[in-house]
Specification:
Blueprint: H1 2-7, H2 23-69
Amino acid sequence: MIDRWCTSDRGAWKLALNGSTSHVEQQFGYCRYAQASDSWLDDFLSTLLAANQQTTDARGSARASRRDDIRSVDGSQVIGLRPC
C-alpha cells in the first residue's frame, strides 16, 4: 500500500512538500509500525463486530419475546407474526 501511494499520481507529488517524508522513510516507518498497527486494527474490529453482534442478538431476543405476546382479536395466540 505504501509503495502504491508513494508512486501514484495522487500521492507521489506530496512527497516533495515541506515536512513530508521520503518514499524510503515511508517504507521504514511501515516496517517499524505495521505489526503494532495491524494488531490494534484487528483488536478494534473484533471488538466493534462483537458489539454489533450483541446488539443484533439483543434485538432478535426482544422481537422473539414480543412475538409471543401477540394475540388475535379472539384471544388465541397468533404464531409467526413479527411486529416492526
